[in-house]
Design brief:
It is a single chain. With 159 residues, the protein is mainly beta. Helices cover 6% and strands 47% of the residues. The protein has 2 helices and 12 strands. The strands form 2 sheets. Strands 1, 2, 3, 6, 7, 8, 9, 10, 11 and 12 form a 10-stranded mixed sheet that branches. It has a two-stranded antiparallel sheet with strand order 4-5. The longest helix is centred in the last third of the chain and has 5 residues. The radius of gyration is 17 Å and the shape is flat.
Length: 159
């Protein structure tokens, strides 16, 4: 009997796809997504700031957040957390990489992490927060936001 061979591993394409604001990208049986906003701020507030709410504030005076706001529709048959759909990174000056963490906006307009997710065929707003030195957010050198979804890579060229 022959030894079974492993299935070939899918690798990200050598040439990433580009993405712009409000451009919907679809990955069959997984998700649809679009970037609705990208901005930087020392304090990231949820859409609803009435009453009690959670927010994220930079840890030092020389750092800030880049907030990549993405609308995601779950095309899978199961509920998925915000981080299950996309990983997002900032790539600065062709050499420095900064990773994000995802925060889902709940039905109440507040930020939720952990046990909240996006139900099948439902759409959620996800904020991918990237803590960076202020120079990265305000400088003039290249800044590319890299989105990885399954085995596909998309680049948003900020500057």
């Amino acid at each position: 009997s022959q030894t079974p061979k492993p299935s070939p591993t899918k690798k990200p394409t050598d040439k990433p796809k580009s993405i712009t604001y409000n451009e919907v990208k679809k990955i069959s049986n997984f998700c649809e997504f679009e970037i609705t906003n990208i901005y930087h701020a020392d304090k990231i507030l949820p859409p609803n700031t009435s009453g009690f709410y959670s927010y994220y504030e930079s840890k030092s005076s020389d750092s800030t957040y880049i907030d990549v706001v993405i609308r995601i529709k779950n095309l899978d048959s199961m509920i998925k957390s915000a981080e299950d759909f996309l990983s997002v990174k900032a790539f600065y000056d062709n050499q420095f990489t900064y990773n994000s963490f995802a925060v889902l906006v709940g039905p109440d307009g507040n930020f939720h992490m952990g046990f909240y997710g996006i139900e099948p065929l439902m759409t959620g707003e996800v904020h991918h927060l990237i803590s960076v030195p202020k120079e990265v957010a305000t400088g003039s050198k290249s800044l590319v936001i890299i989105l990885q979804a399954k085995d596909e890579e998309f680049h948003f060229v900020s500057r």
